[in-house]
Amino acid sequence: xxxxxxxxxxAAVLGGLLxxxxxxxxxxxxxxxxxxxDSAGYPVxxxxxxxxxTTFDSTPRHIVTSNAASLELxxxxxxGDKVLGTGFPPGKGTLPGELDARAQxxxxxxxxxxPKEKLLGSGADLYIDTFASMNMGGGMGDAPxxxxxxxxxxxHIYLRSTACAAMSKSPVTDLSAVQDDxxxxxxxxxxxxxxxxxxxxMKKKVDAVxxxxxxxxxxxxxxxxxxxxxxxxxQPMAVCNRxxxxxxxTLAGARNVFADCDGDYRQVGWEDVIAANPDWIQLxxxxxxxxxxxxxxxxxxxxxxxxxxATKGLKAVKEGHFLRIGSERTTIAGxxxxxxxxxxxxxxxxxxxxxx
Length: 356
Description:
This protein is α/β, with parallel strands linked by helices. The protein has helices spanning 8-11, 31-40, 68-77, 97-103, 116-120, 136-140, 146-151, 160-164, 176-189, 192-213, 244-251, 270-276, 291-307, 315-318, 328-331, 336-348, 350-353; strands at residues 18-20, 44-47, 53-56, 63-65, 83-87, 108-110, 126-129, 155-159, 223-228, 237-239, 255-256, 265-267, 280-284, 322-323.
């Protein structure tokens, strides 16, 4: 597995349902449990991919997040004051507006993975982990065991889309799992009203796009390649059909050229991209912290495609069909996914959705 170090915001695919413990992704949901907790107050119970249950008798007071993805959701839900610290902190300017200022005030417990001793000794009563499906902690040999979490008094839960999506039985083609994740996290943190507002806002945007382009026949949908520039150019990294980006692209009325790839990410060859010859290419770069720096990064990605002998003949490159949309809003499951659906649809289907 390639390293996600420095790529937390693109690799940590936040979405779906909250999962307690690391599961194998069998399609179980926590929606009913979370809804029951919401209507009756605590206790609130969430289940993992295998159905194991974790119960919260009260609102967690001290939360640690594994990366910027789960931190952003807590900030949006209004539970940011409960966050003690985070790993993989968001770069300056990555989050919009006031969220960015608040995120920069959160204590950084690890520039990448949080060291085991620091996590266990943090004083947290809840750790929200987004790396399960990639075996991130275990793969690097510095993740606490579940027994160690229990001994430290920390409840350990995962964001289910990250924990289970890569192993799910079917492609991800909508944002329902992302919305369920927000709902469940709202129930756990006592912010269900705000969670409903966020979910309703996402549904409103996505439903409008679906009404406009959802009925477009498959063969009439433009083909689309997400160019993960920050993953390197030697060998492209494709977003596959279990990645939330596949849902974003599909909902926007396009066809992911690697939709037949089962999983979340996979290294492919440029010959595969050439064979697909996409109609549109998204220049996927991480937020650099300023408009000028972002523009420079997008320019570099576009110039690489235009000058490389293997890619300069692609249809999208010759026609200048590039979308400059940051990686975070596309490959991280969260509220921003709905905005990206709308933006892609407006670009690819201007006569149906409106001006980009």
